[in-house]
């Protein structure tokens, strides 16, 4: 039997089959946890944030308007819960002067890297390590864009940030990732 689409599960949960919500949890908990870990950098806090996010999603499910994917709506809740947690520990997402400029920014790519280098497990680990070093505001957005393949528009909905800010943060995240990979691997090809 094929898995039910999220919208069908939501309809059934709202009609009284509340146990089906666990299917949504199973389907989305890994990515929700990954996002929370990128933002909070503490497993215990991330687990608590994800649990809180799913509870909030369940309680607010009747207000889900289906204007976006359930995952986008859920990641918005995770992002907000993590933002609140960061705020409570005195770590606020601060905009840099680059982010305050909403002008469109072209995101550079790594297409110059030889395929043999990209395919290497060592480089993959270096990318993961560099991603883990990003400040939370950049790591969260980079995770959504590069790992979850979310569009700019979806990230705008999740973060509540203007499109220019999302693009600026992705630009900065990519530059920091590139620098981190260069530092780890010595690949000067990335510097160009």
Structure description:
By secondary structure, the chain is an all-alpha fold. The chain folds into 2 domains: 83 residues, RNA polymerase sigma factor, region 2, helix turn helix motif (Rna Polymerase Sigma Factor, Chain: A), CATH 1.10.1740; 95 residues, Winged helix-like DNA-binding domain superfamily/Winged helix DNA-binding domain (Arc Repressor Mutant, subunit A, Orthogonal Bundle), CATH 1.10.10. It is built from 10 helices and no strands. Helix 3 crosses helix 4. About 10% of the residues have low confidence.
SSE blueprint:
Elements: H1 6-14, H2 21-40, H3 43-60, H4 70-88, H5 97-100, H6 115-118, H7 121-133, H8 136-147, H9 152-159, H10 163-185
Helix pairs in contact: 2-3, 2-4, 2-8, 3-4, 4-9, 7-10, 8-10
Brief digest:
With about 190 residues, this protein is mainly alpha-helical. The protein has helices spanning about 5-15, 20-40, 45-60, 70-90, 95-100, 115-120, 120-135, 135-145, 150-160, 165-185.
* Strand proportion: under 5%
* Strand-pairing-aware structural class: mainly alpha
Mean pLDDT: 82
Q: Radius of gyration, Cα only, in angstroms? A: 18 Å
CATH topology of the largest domain: Arc Repressor Mutant, subunit A
Order of helices and strands: HHHHHHHHHH
Please mark out the parts with pLDDT under 50 across 5 or more consecutive residues, or reply none.
94-113
Name of the top-level CATH class of the largest domain:
Mainly Alpha
Q: Could you tell me how far the N terminus lies from the C terminus, measured between alpha carbons in angstroms?
A: 50 Å
CATH superfamily of the largest domain: Winged helix-like DNA-binding domain superfamily/Winged helix DNA-binding domain
| Number of spatially distinct domains | 2
């Amino acid at each position: 039997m094929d898995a039910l689409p999220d919208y069908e599960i939501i309809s059934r949960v709202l009609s009284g089959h509340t146990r089906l919500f666990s299917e949504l949890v199973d389907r989305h908990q890994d990515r929700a946890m990954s996002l929370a870990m990128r933002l909070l950098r503490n497993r215990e806090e991330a687990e608590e944030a994800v649990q809180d996010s799913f509870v909030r999603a369940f309680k607010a499910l009747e207000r889900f308007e289906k204007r976006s994917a359930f995952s986008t709506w859920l990641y918005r809740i995770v992002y907000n819960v993590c933002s609140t947690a960061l705020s409570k520990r005195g770590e606020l997402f601060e905009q840099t002067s680059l982010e305050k400029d909403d002008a469109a920014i072209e995101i550079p790519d790594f297409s110059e890297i030889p395929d043999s280098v990209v395919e290497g497990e060592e480089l993959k680990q270096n990318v993961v390590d560099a991603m883990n070093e990003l400040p939370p505001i950049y790591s969260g957005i980079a995770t959504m864009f590069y790992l979850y393949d979310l569009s700019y528009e979806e990230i705008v909905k999740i973060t509540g940030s203007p499109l220019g800010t999302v693009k600026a943060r992705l630009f900065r995240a990519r530059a920091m990732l590139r620098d981190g990979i260069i530092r780890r691997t010595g690949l000067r090809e990335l510097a160009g």
